[in-house]
Amino acid sequence: MNLDLRNYSVRTDLAVESKELAETAYGGPVPGLNEQVEEQDGIKITRLDITDEAASRRIGKMLGHYITIEVPGLRSQDSDLQEKVSAAFAKEFGAFLSKIGIAEGAKVLIVGLGNWNVTPDALGPLVVENVLVTRHFFELAPDQVSPGYREVSAVAPGVLGVTGIESSEVVQGIVDRTKPDLIIAIDALAARSLERVNTTVQIADIGIHPGSGIGNKRRGLTQEILGVPCIAIGVPTVCYASTIVNNVFDLMKRHFDEETGQEQGQTKQILGLMTELSENERLGLVKEVLQPLGHDLIVTPKEIDEFIEDIANVIASGLNLALHEAVNPDNVATYTH
């Protein structure tokens, strides 16, 4: 079977998933990637540095630094675990700022991208609601600001379909007026793996392109465009129906292998030639069927209302801890609402 797979690649915004796909395709580790993995108390942290142009092309991600925090237990809505994740996020984010050369007193603009009217896309605006903003104190009463706080402002610029203005244009105007030293952009992402939806946080220093997770190419929030370093924080809240079908096939194959004891040819008799196709070939076939029918839907879990609130609070609490030394971890909940 000969398929043109150029339009049928697996769509994911997560660098760790792109790395996994590249390693499968190339049959081993990809040169030019530096990876550190740490796991403790149900929290897996992957630090990935893409330092080589060839590696960047192979995995389809820009040169830069990426941190991925994976916590499958977040779906259990365990408040103690959420506090641990906030603390882990704060620690990683603080180290990330130092790594890319951001000064301790740098002025920060937090940008919550997304549409607050669409639950899986409301992550950015929800985080903005819960972060501790201080710029107005520094502007109006600087002598009354206690030590341990930095100047932080926040905005949720909406989406093009609601405002008629590109988010990047709104942010550019704010940057020109307020002169921040750093932009932190928060947005919902798309994942390849169902297990990573609503359980994973990615930090990257490459900026962000609003709408890229669902295939919309928009003017980005990057240092090249805005003239200010831009860190992207994202959480996958959706995946494509074709990706789900592909994942289900893998689960079925694993199930039949276990049930038949991997007896010669048993799984192939059940699933046919699909067992001989690579993941990209299967995905290409699924998309070839679904797309003309308009059925390659963007899917989110039915519990998204609760998940999005929880993960937004985790990120907001972590940012409050990382950006303000005076914020006490024991009292971080007092800064959220």
TrEMBL record:
Record's catalysed reaction(s): Endopeptidase action with P4 Glu or Asp, P1 preferably Glu > Asp, P1' hydrophobic and P2' Ala
EC number: 3.4.24.78
Record bears the keyword Protease: yes
UniProt PTM comment: Autoproteolytically processed. The inactive tetrameric zymogen termed p46 autoprocesses to a smaller form termed p41, which is active only during spore germination.
One GO MF term attached to the UniProt entry: hydrolase activity
Pfam families with a match to the protein in the record: Peptidase_A25
Propeptide residues, chain positions: 1-13
Keywords of this entry: Hydrolase, Protease, Zymogen
Domain of life: Bacteria
InterPro entries, per database record: Pept_HybD-like_dom_sf, Peptidase_A25
Family: Belongs to the peptidase A25 family.
Summary of the function given for this chain in its UniProt record: Initiates the rapid degradation of small, acid-soluble proteins during spore germination.
Self-association state and partner proteins as the record states: Homotetramer.
Protein name listed in UniProt: Germination protease
Gene giving rise to this polypeptide: gpr
